Amino acid sequence: MKTLQEKLAAEFGIEFADLPLLETAFTHTSYANEHRLLKISHNERLEFLGDAVLQLVISKYLYQKYPHYPEGEMSKLRSTFVREESLAGFSRACGFDRYLRLGKGEEKSGGRNRDTILGDAFEAFLGALLLDKGEQVVEEFLYKVMIPQLEVGNFERVTDYKTALQELLQVNGEIAISYQVIAETGPAHDKVFEVVVTADQRIIGQGKGRSKKLAEQAAAKNAVEARG
Question: CATH classification of 2-151, choosing from 1.20.210.10, 3.10.50.40, 1.10.540.10, 1.10.1520.10?
Fold first, then answer.
């Protein structure tokens, strides 16, 4: 953590007062589970907080940047910017992957380079930064790390297959589209979700992913491609 502290101070002018909080932000559930007797906290609660402040800062940025955009267009842009893959990219750019505390099994299975874990760590760091320094510092950090890349389009452009499927199916009117998890496999820290997508109660696609969101996108992609 000392190296991380030095990096944050040198590159971003950030010096954490609560060092255990910073450590928690980079602690994956797999590490906490392997050290239960030490009662180590993991970063899921901070991730929840970080997601909220990230949504706020990006929403404020879009509102100011595009004064003539309707709510729907801003929502689409925001969802693209804060996608798991995009956040993982920003996490790598900050070098956060080097400071993750992972369980041995997660480490061996390539967890240090997994988008889900890296994206979650980025949000957890924002949550810790919010608690330690306040919203203004979080915004300043994002305007150094994230916003300049968004301005020039350097973020992970991943097709939103759920939106594409909705637009494809509802061209002639409303159709009830829903997603359902039909299976969960793997240990708690490395689950794989299997999802089906239905249209008017008929299964039209199926997919798997390491999060429910990714599995839903995979199922939607399967449905879109089946109609291609």
Answer: 1.10.1520.10
